[in-house]
Amino acid sequence: MIGTGYVGLVTGTCLAEVGNDVLCLDVDARKIAILNDGGVPIHEPGLLEMIRRNVDAGRLRFTTDVDAAVAHGETQFIAVGTPPDEDGSADMQYVIAAARAIGRRMTAWKVVVDKSTVPVGTADRVRAAIADELRARGVELPFAVVSNPEFLKEGAAVDDFMKPDRVVIGADDERAVEAMRAVYSPFMRSHERLLVMDVRSAELTKYAANAMLATRISFMNELANLADDLGADIEQVRQGIGSDPRIGWHFLYPGAGYGGSCFPKDVKALQHTATQLGRPLRILGAVEEVNDLQKLRLVEKIVGRLGADLAGRRFALWGLAFKPNTDDMREAPSLAVIEALAARGATVAAYDPVAMDEARRVLGSVARVTFALSPMGALDGADALVVVTEWKEFRSPDFDAIRGALKERLVFDGRNLYDPARVRAAGLEYFAIGRR
Ligand SMILES: NC(=O)c1ccc[n+]([C@@H]2O[C@H](COP(=O)([O-])OP(=O)(O)OC[C@H]3O[C@@H](n4cnc5c(N)ncnc54)[C@H](O)[C@@H]3O)[C@@H](O)[C@H]2O)c1
Questions:
Q1: How many Å apart are CA 274 and CA 98, to the nearest integer?
Q2: Which residue has the CA at smallest separation from atom 18 of ligand 1?
């Protein structure tokens, strides 16, 4: 497993869980040291226990030794990062470096599996990079390159991997398809969920999935803002449309915008590909634009109530991670909210159940933030409460205690967590997204 981040670590651990012998490689020596010391560098429910179990059984190991990693397995997964480049395209340097590392060392047939989210055509580039290295060594060895995009959700990654909705395999090599069937058959004992397709379709499938999900979120966010103007309640509307099976319940929650390491960068990367081909995706352009504005929707509401000058104001902020059950802060809406409040002179006392260390690292440059040890601790001396991430522990707070702690008795809820009538009955002024 080349790359031991959210995807590589979960994939490697779950593959070990079903009996495989897995060696996880990373260039980040700090991560490997944490893992070799019995820790886990990320927060993912159920992962630590599964890692320990498989390390103890001798099926899961971690290394920075590239030679050992390439020698270890016939199947080499590339699960390295593909962050956005300055122009919005996916930065492929880590994927290509991993491919070259394999080509430089392999001595027998390999299946090289692109698990990272990569633009259409990447399998060809990976194949060319490996072939190039083999040529430089003057050796001829057969190998196959397969696209196997990952659909796991952070916060439920172990469950998603162990019980996948589907496994997409893009391949044009029968032997490689058989190897992939063998890898994934333990995960589909109840029924077959392996979809084999051509490589380019598999690569596009991953972007299509994330683009569709991001579209649903931006669509609902725009409707919620309209509901605010119309005096309608988006929560009622959500239930009215979600009950239609053609629409369904998932990803219809309006809020403070989507973030994370996937949607923002994948929407950008797909748009970049489309634009280069002279076919920019108009819907996706709007999805991104709506999301950028939505991240500041809460601040808009705060300014609407308290005025543009927030100097001397103090806000309690609940939820830093881009979504619950993860410590991932990449592109988190909380960052946009904190930066906008700080830019207007306010201070922020933030609380998150698991992401505060990561937030400290990311927010190092923003001086106006402090971190509280508890949700109620964040309210000390605050004018208003701002809820940005829908952690379970925020769902049923003591509203009387909140009223008692806040100077201005204002709650700005970016995730529509509360019943407006209940919050108001407690003597608080309540602002949510698209709610009456
Ligand atoms: N995080 C998710 O929920 C998720 C879900 C589906 C797909 N993906 C995709 O999977 C890929 C990985 O995402 P992630 O969130 O796991 O990233 P990550 O940043 O958490 O992990 C990537 C790891 O790869 C390592 N790495 C980089 N170059 C390397 C090399 N040459 N050899 C060995 N290790 C190397 C990095 O040090 C890092 O630890 C991305 O393309 C992402 O879009 C992510």
A1: 26
A2: 5
| Active site (annotated) includes residue 14 | no
| CA 82 – CA 180 distance, rounded (Å) | 23
The atom number, within ligand 1, closest to the CA of 80 reads: 24
Q: What number does the ligand 1 atom closest to the CA of 6 have?
A: 16
- Count of other CB atoms within 10 angstroms of residue 182: 11
Say how far apart CA 99 and CA 76 lie, in whole Å: 9
Whether pTM exceeds 0.90: yes
Torsions phi, psi for 431 (to 5 deg): -125, 120
Q: CB count, 10 Å around CB of 1?
A: 29
Give the whole-angstrom CA distance, residue 169 versus residue 146: 7
CB distance 266 to 210 below 8 Å = yes
Q: According to DSSP H, which parts of 166-281 are helical?
A: 174-184, 199-230, 234-242, 263-276
Write down the pLDDT at residue 230: 98
Ligand 1 pocket by C-beta < 6 Å: which residues? Answer: 2-8, 25-28, 31, 79-82, 94, 97-98, 116-117, 150, 152, 154, 261-262
Q: CA-based Rg of the chain, rounded to a whole angstrom?
A: 24
C-alpha distances in Å from residue 141, one per residue of 103, 106, 112, 115, 144: 9, 8, 13, 22, 10
Q: What is the mean pLDDT of residues 415-432?
A: 98
Cα separation, 127 vs 147, in Å, equals 11
The atom number, within ligand 1, closest to the CA of 266 reads 43
Among 2, 4, 6, 63, which residue has the most ligand 1 atoms within 8 Å of its CB, making it the best to mutate? 6
Q: Which of 2, 24, 26, 95 to mutate to test the pocket of ligand 1 (most atoms within 8 A of CB)?
A: 26
Contact 115, 219 (CB under 8 A): no
Instruction: Please identify which of the residues 99, 102, 211, 262 carries the catalytic annotation.
Output: 262
Distance from residue 7's CA to the centre of ligand 1 (Å): 6
Spatial separation of the C-alpha atoms in residues 58 and 8, rounded to whole Å: 18
Please write the tens of the pLDDT for every residue from 257-276: 999 999 999 999 999 999 99
In this prediction, residue 380 carries a pLDDT of 96
- Per-residue model confidence (pLDDT) at position 436: 86
